[in-house]
Amino acid sequence: MDIEELGLSVRAYNAVKRYGINTTEELAERIDEFCKHAPKYGEEAREALSKVSAPQPSGVIVESAEYTRAVRLHRCICANAQAAQESLYEMCKALKEMRDGKHYKELGYDNFEGYCKSELSMTDRNARNYIAVIENFTEENRKTFSGLQTSKLFLLAKLDEQERTEIAQNTDLESTSVRELKAKIDDLKKANDRLMGKVAEAEDNAALSRKSEEAACGKLSILRTDAEMKEQKIAQLTAKLNAEAARSAELENQVEELENRPVDVLIHNNDEEIDRLTAQFQEELEKRDKDTEQRLEQQREKYLKQMNEGIAKAREEAQAPDLHELWRALDNSLDNAIEAIEDFFDDYEDHPKIKDFASRLKTTIRDLNTTVNNVLAGEK
């Protein structure tokens, strides 16, 4: 039996049809499922289904003329409501085509708003709402939302597909008023906004984490570079130390080898070194001889000066009545000269030239001193 014969209200009939139930047999099989989906209309459908299924007493006329008329009127209303819904979508489609194709200019209007106001007694806002219905509703939406008031359709048209699906699953659209539907939509949008805020916050945190990670990677790269440079420096120092250690070991081996060589071999191998040292010593000795000769010459000139001064003094004093004192003074000067010469030449005892020069000088002074002593002895 067709579902129209149950005598359901228009809203209950539309709810059953939207749920995909077309016969009383299908309704009987899915009544529990439909009641969970639309509790209010489910109970009405369950009650109507029970009346049809209940056995009638024999001999009793069930259908009266009034009942038959009521059923016919109900069917007419449902059919026209369905036709009106289909006509609504056709009107929305025609409005969209009129606006997008600018066909209103063929009717003498400069803009779509003027056409709607003059020809349809419709505001531009309402026209846009109707067009939004045809633009945003899918074919499935049109079946699901058939029979709803235009105000509800306008609200649902402003949602995206996910939001419309969520509202349809959690709301009894037939029994919910426009105000309640708007409140539910506002709540849904606020919840979505909070969710989007959390998503944005999570994305920001993720971006900060990525920046922190990049900064950490940069620091790690710098540390790795420093570590590599330090490792290279350590390797260089290690190589240098190893080279020094090898050099030290080589020198130790050479020293040990030299210490273990026989004396004659060592002397033979060091002839060149001995020659070099001998030449160097000879050079230093010659230089010292030159210095010594210069000093000796200076000393000789000094003593000659002293002797000349002594002689001059002796000559001056020769005119004095006491000649003995003059000779005594000369004798003392000669003794002092000999003592000074001996002190000076003590450091050059091993030098042949200096020793010979000192000996001749002392002999000359001693001879002179002997003469003076003889003069002094004769005076006595």
Key features?
380 residues, mainly alpha
Question: Can you offer a commentary on this structure?
Answer:
The protein contains 14 helices and no strands. Among the domains are: 3-56 and 64-164, no CATH class; 287-379. It is rod-shaped and about 205 Å long. The protein is mostly helical. Residues 54-62 have low confidence and may be disordered. It has helices spanning 10-18, 24-37, 39-53, 65-100, 112-119, 124-136, 139-144, 150-157, 161-170, 178-260, 263-269, 271-318, 323-345, 352-379.
Number of helices: 14
Percent of residues in beta strands?
A: under 5%
Helix-strand pattern: HHHHHHHHHHHHHH
Q: Using only CA atoms, what is the Rg?
A: 70 Å
Brief rundown of the structure:
By secondary structure, the protein is mainly alpha-helical. Among the domains are: 155 residues, no CATH class; 93 residues.
